[in-house]
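#struct-help
A.M.: can someone run this one for me? Single chain, 501 residues.
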Amino acid sequence: MDNGNRAPIPRLRVCVIGAGVSGLVAAKTFHEEGHEVTVFERSDQLGGVWNPRRAYAGLTTQTPGDQYAFSDFPTPADHPDWPSARHVQAYLRAYAEHFGVAPLIRYRSTVVRAQPRGTGEPPWSVTVDSPTGRSTREFDFLLVCNGIFSAPHVPELPGTRRFTAAGGTVLHTSDCGSAELFRGRRVVVVGFGKSAMDIAATAAPRAREVHLVVRRAVWTVPRFFGGLVHIRHVCTSRLWESLMPSRSPGPARLEAGRRRLLALLWRAVELLLSCQFRLRASGLRPAHRFGEQVASGFQVAPAGLFHLVRAGRIQVHRAGAEGFTPEGAVLSDGRVLAADVVVLGTGYRQELPFLDPDLAARIIDPEGRYRLYRCLVSPEVPGLGFVGYNSSLFTPTTSELGARWLAAHATGRITLPSPPEMHRAIDAELLTGKAVRPLSGRFSGTHVVPYTYSYLDGLQKDLITISNPRGVNAVRNYLKPFSPHDYAPDTIRRDPTHGKP
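D.P.: on it. Structure tokens below:
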């Protein structure tokens, strides 16, 4: 909670690692408060996953563009409803220039080590490799904004060298920057995540043939339910979040009734999706129920994907990829798919390569789970914050409020619970997540899905503020689609009920 301290805010030297969505809003937030901010970006351009050097052909946002935005910087009116990587990067570049962040970025600068200092010294010593050589600087606060998609996961499949020696190409989805890679070629795409679906749909009109290798199908949702109702009116409101599994169940009888009603609702959703996408005909109907997945997250199907499957332009194989022969990809059922290009939609690793292993082990538990209070700070490592590790469908907004929270914390305006109390809160959150998100292992990275509104409400409570959209009553606020502007500084006010029973 806010400790009420109104002393002058100390000026801190702040290091930001990464110039993607989260790094830019973190730098902007701390810069506006008068801190000395330096952003280290290993690429030669800003944007993170939207950087043209990393964005794959066919990449678009999962949510409408006006929802994938910062609260105080609306997207241009001429942006499409589903902006491409080019649109998003242009938006981020304009944001950085408008708020004075662009001059703070040091490009082609890779943080190779961040080491805490002793008592009485500047808290962090940060070593960076840049075009001018290796250098070390001291900082008062370290913000990790390297994202949950910063390190492509490329499995070592047997036979890869024989396949490439015979002229084949193996790529991760993040290496597919041009659709011309697929023209006239036999393409095999491995996986059924967003990037794999996007690549398959992009390759199909250009390639000689496209094969989509799917070990486990997951439920995807359309941009328009039933071809009519925009996703924003279905999956982005407080009402939708209220349908998620209860984190604090009520009386047993009421909870049992609620579960039965939700089971019927999710069954209806399954029927709608199965009919709209013709999943059985496509061979892509998941084996699990929609209700088992809904709290773990969902992916928005690229336009035309299932039509391309039914038309035979994308051939689906329900199997895994086990390796290569010189001719192509070997599937888990023994078949060999002849291929010129194999694209691995195998996701990303989330890691902290610049921290010593013993320090990283204080943040990441043996099961690979990040132990972060509010998904923002470690109870064990002071002077360290994480932005973007509270990923959601609305990452610009969750990152923005997270950055505000960290700026208040870094300058003593938020009093944190004791480390044991924070650990208990983290344990409770991890236990709840395991219970309500049984399929979360199939979705990459740390996140606050599906409780985004609850998470944002918690941050605002800590800051003793509440969102107060103008002219919106409580019922409409519950039903209306998500809007980043609801969290803009001019729509945030002090909560007069804070601390009252």
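A.M.: thanks! The mean pLDDT is 92.
D.P.: also worth noting: The chain is about 30% helix and 20% strand.
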